[in-house]
Amino acid sequence: RWILILLLILALLIPGLELVLRRNTALNSLGEWLYKRGRYKEAGKIFDGYAEEEEGAANLAKSRYKQGDYESAADAAEQALQKDQNNAETHYDKGNIAFMNEDYQSAVEEYEKALLLNPEDDDARENLELALTKLDKNPPPPPDPKEDEDKKNEEEVRNILDALDNLEARERKQQDKQGTPKTDNWW
Q1: How confident is the model at residue 40 (pLDDT cuts 50, 70, 90)?
Q2: CATH dotted code for 21-84
Q3: Is the pTM here over 0.85, yes or no?
Q4: What percent of the chain has pLDDT over 70?
């Protein structure tokens, strides 16, 4: 009988100890439970409690994405990627966020990163194809004419400097030919 009571006490203490000793694991479990039930706002509050960790930031990005808060989702995904650049799932999520913001070029880049890290990800492959299709229909805006002019000016300056270098090299060569007469004495 005492053994049964002791087992019951232990059964109650173990989850309590996990909550105290491994707080973020317990929070993550609770947040995921809420997320799976479509309670994205509540899950986001839980994930925000430990967003300083990569897993918390990545989960926060997902919950904010599901709430339609793409700007906040992008910030959280970027925070997660600062902690782990090799997380294919977060790159995929960031691609989805960019796609929803109609930034198809960024979406393509993020889906490509996700596929480099996880070549088996069929969702990332399909979304990449979709983003490429959208990108073809909506090409990026043409470059700013001022930037083109700046590039032309920069190229012109570079050409002038190259021409001056060539002129200087030719003049040195001529001076060497006309320069000091050679003697047989080495001293």
Answers
A1: confident
A2: 1.25.40.10
A3: no
A4: 84
Phi first, then psi: give them for residue 9, nearest 5 degrees: -65, -45
Residue 38 backbone zone (phi > 0: left; psi -120 to 50: alpha; other: beta): left
Cβ-Cβ contacts under 8 Å for 146 (sequence gap 6 or more):
none
Which tokens in the block code for residue 166? 């060539």
- Residues 110-159 have pLDDT tens digits of 999 999 999 999 999 999 999 999 988 876 666 677 777 777 888 888 88
110's tokens: 């993020």
Q: CA of 69: how far to CAs of 24, 40, 43, 82, in Å?
A: 24, 11, 14, 20
- Across 47-147, where does the E strand assignment appear? none
Query: Class of 85-140 per CATH?
Result: mainly alpha
| Terminal CA-CA length for the chain | 111
Per-domain residue ranges of the chain: 21-84, 85-140
What does the pLDDT look like over 69-105, one tens digit per residue?
999 999 999 998 998 899 999 999 999 999 999 999 9
